[in-house]
Amino acid sequence: MESILVLTHTADTPTALTKASLEAITAGRDLSTRLDAPLTIGIVATEIPHAAVFPAATRILAVLDPALAQPRYSTDAAACETLCRAAQPTIVLAPGSSRFARIAAGVAHRLGGVIDTHITALAGSSNIEATRWLYRQRIEAVLHRDARPWFLLLDPGTHAPYSAAPDSISAAQAAIEPISVSLPAPRTTVTGYRSPNQSADTIRPDAKLLFVAGAGWTKKQPDGQLHTAEASALILNFLRATSASLGSSKSLVDQGSDGHSVLPFLTHMNQIGQTGSTPRHAKGLSTCCHGEEPHVVGWRFIAERRAISLDPNCGWTRGKADVVYIADAFAVIARLNELLAASKP
Ligand SMILES: Cc1cc2nc3c(=O)[nH]c(=O)nc-3n(C[C@H](O)[C@H](O)[C@H](O)COP(=O)(O)OP(=O)(O)OC[C@H]3O[C@@H](n4cnc5c(N)ncnc54)[C@H](O)[C@@H]3O)c2cc1C
């Protein structure tokens, strides 16, 4: 019989679990119901996350230590290994956060287990069927394994975050079992965060809207002139007003290395597509982008797609977007920014 452990960790505020951790709890709860298998939740934190709710009839283990305030391979791996040894699971689900993605394979190895990453769905009631995408989201594979323990790192954004359901209990009601751990003495000290570039501030995986800037923003406009500074201001104002995540086409981010007029806040980290990222947002708005296949393949998980392009024959109009506005994005975004500013209380 299977037994399931969901590994979770807290966010910057120690009182709350991360959204990706709550998604892993949903996945674990659903899987345990389907397999009729016991469910354990393991928490890596400095203190009990008081704001959390858990499915009832769940065993909850916590490794609590001040050293876990900061993500670090040695301490995080030791904490997760301790939780696994205490729970003795056959299946371990964990959020594919940068914190757990770094340690999960190492912990699986210490437990003599196996691991699969980027899991997007779990199905099956007698056998576990784990789904992931391969070859840049073009092929969907369903994986089975006999080896145990089987670690499955879940892609964030693929499950609904667990929230108070009728069968929930609060952290105060739950009998949380503290598990003692002997953490290795840290050899590294985190002194603060320094973003490698400004794009780190514009990439917001949890945003409802993805705003994509294409190379058209830095091309000569109908007046024969470049308007890069205006483009910068329009895009940044839109992002400030909507808290959207900023994506880019490859052509636009490549311009920086080619010495052309560029938008200074964009880097390759923003690139969406075949050789870029494949984010998950409820909506996407493409601007000044042609919508070619290597770009649009990165939109696979965007639920509702809209585009603003001057070209009525662009890729978006050929069935790749739900709505296409054949219009000047400079004018449309300027007007949108006015409306957004006016709608602010
Ligand atoms: C192996 C390979 C991998 C690739 N991987 C990627 C990838 O991961 N991501 C990616 O993005 N691309 C990728 N590409 C490149 C891709 O094929 C396209 O070249 C690129 O996406 C084009 O970028 P763009 O649409 O921004 O630029 P362009 O093709 O130059 O299009 C600019 C668009 O802006 C419009 N425009 C101009 N001014 C305005 C205005 N004022 N208002 C509205 N619209 C305006 C124009 O009409 C035009 O349609 C890859 C290519 C290859 C060969």
Question: How would you sum up the global shape?
Answer: elongated
CATH architecture of the largest domain: 3-Layer(aba) Sandwich
In the residues, how many domains can be counted?
Answer: 2
Specify the CATH class of the largest domain: Alpha Beta
Q: Might you state the CATH topology name of the largest domain?
A: Rossmann fold
For the biggest β-sheet, the strand order reads 8-7-6-9-5-1-2-4-11
Mean pLDDT value? 93
Distance between the termini: 56 Å
Main sheet record: 9 strands, mixed
Order of helices and strands: EHEEEHEHEEEEEEHEHEHEHEEH
Alpha-beta content class: alpha/beta
Helical residue percent band: 25-40%
Tell me the name of the CATH homologous superfamily of the largest domain: HUPs
Question: How many beta-strand runs?
Answer: 16
Give the C-alpha Rg. Answer: 23 Å
Strand content of the residues, in percent?
15-25%
Oligomer: single chain
**What small molecules does this complex bind?**
flavin-adenine dinucleotide
Number of helices: 8
Protein described:
- The chain is elongated, with a radius of gyration of 23 Å.
- The model has no long low-confidence stretch (mean pLDDT 93).
- The strands form three sheets. A nine-stranded mixed β-sheet has the order 8-7-6-9-5-1-2-4-11, sandwiched between helices.
- The chain has helices spanning 19-35, 73-87, 98-110, 199-202, 228-242, 250-258, 293-296, 329-342, and strands at 4-9, 39-45, 53-55, 59-64, 91-95, 114-123, 129-134, 139-143, 150-154, 168-170, 176-178, 209-213, 245-248, 283-287, 304-309, 323-326.
- It is of the alpha/beta class and 345 residues long.
- Helices cover 26% and strands 24% of the residues.
- The protein folds into two domains: 4-178, Rossmann fold (3-Layer(aba) Sandwich); 199-342, Rossmann fold, CATH 3.40.50.
- The protein has eight helices and 16 strands.
- Flavin-adenine dinucleotide binds at residues 214-216, 219, 221, 249-252, 271-276, 288-290, 292, 294-295, 298, 308-311, 314, 328-330.
